[in-house]
Design goal:
The protein is built from 11 helices and 10 strands. The chain has about 290 residues and is of the alpha/beta class. Strands 1-2-3-4-5-6-7-10 form an 8-stranded parallel barrel, surrounded by 4 helices. The chain has a two-stranded antiparallel ribbon with strand order 8-9. This is Sugar phosphate isomerase/epimerase. One of its GO terms (molecular function) is isomerase activity.
Length: about 290
């Protein structure tokens, strides 16, 4: 039996913020994750009064914010020439999360090179160190989403940082679809870093180069549109409804319980023409384990 609260990625409902929040409550969620990189949720567009009003509105629905999504896309933090601006914006998203009552901002940082002497590795390490120190000063976490590299390699990267301010948003489907890594073993490997999770399923059609999927320098920059298109009709992987892919949820949920994870299981649905129906089915799927 699992005791974790269930979250919904509001943007997956494609209803806009307020309607998405109301629908999340109707569907039975305990909390929500919200993109906070552009539009009305861009920290630059939210005054202090607007932040207070939004926090009160979410509370009035008896919801919590499981996390904000601060994924800025592109090449992650691989490009030294743009990192200063990305780090600054990421800090403002962390500020916003804390003001709204959450301690987690999830993101993709780009694919961590295998060679730690690679200049890109060092550039990413430097950016994450700065963000980790800042997040820790707020009692918060900047959570790297799994998928671009194996769990063991991600752990070795995180182990080089001075704090756990940069931690992990664990997405089992990304691991199955892109690297072919075992998400169950990944839970045990990354147990000291997991602060948020996504609930998603999928299959791998053929071996993929993570650098092409997640936009490393020298490759096409990552966008969520390109990720969704590849997951729908590409030739390397498919996102599927929970239970229809290769994530072994019996063992995966058991692993999360065994490491003592008590945080959110947040449903993310990046494909499909009926997101509300799919997310309702996902909640029912998770409830079977409660």
């Amino acid at each position: 039996m699992i005791i974790n609260p269930i979250g919904i990625m509001v943007d997956s409902l494609r209803l806009g913020l307020r309607d998405g929040l109301k629908k999340s409550k109707e569907l039975g969620a305990d909390g929500v994750q919200i993109y906070a990189v552009s539009g009305e949720m861009d920290p630059a567009n939210l005054s202090a009064a607007a932040r207070k009003e939004l926090r009160n509105y979410i509370a009035s629905l008896d919801l919590q914010i499981s996390a904000l999504c601060g994924d800025l896309g592109g090449h992650g933090f691989q490009d030294q020439t743009v990192n200063a601006a990305k780090i600054e914006k990421s800090k403002r998203i962390l500020d916003l999360a804390v003001e709204l009552g959450s301690s987690v901002v999830t993101t993709h940082i780009g694919v961590v090179p295998e060679d730690r002497n690679d200049p890109i590795y060092q550039t990413m390490l430097q950016a994450c160190e700065e963000l980790g120190v800042y997040a820790s000063s707020l009692g918060a976490y900047f959570a790297v989403e799994t998928g671009p590299e194996t769990s063991s390699h991600l752990k070795s990267f995180l182990d080089n940082l001075s704090t756990k301010g940069v931690s992990v948003n664990f997405d089992p489907a990304n691991m199955v679809m892109v690297t072919g890594d075992d998400p169950v073993q990944g839970v045990y490997t990354l147990k000291d870093y997991i602060v948020h999770t996504h609930v998603k399923d999928g299959i791998r059609l053929r071996q993929a180069d993570p650098r092409q999927v997640y936009g490393s320098l020298g490759y096409k920059p990552m966008t969520h549109e390109s990720i969704a298109e590849a997951a729908t009709s590409g030739d390397t992987y498919r996102e599927l409804a929970l239970g229809e892919g290769h994530v072994d949820f019996d063992r995966y949920f058991q692993a999360l319980q065994e490491i003592g994870y008590k945080g959110y299981l947040t449903i993310e649905r990046e494909v499909g023409e009926q997101p509300e129906t799919d997310i309702a089915s996902a909640i029912a799927f998770i409830q079977k384990y409660k």
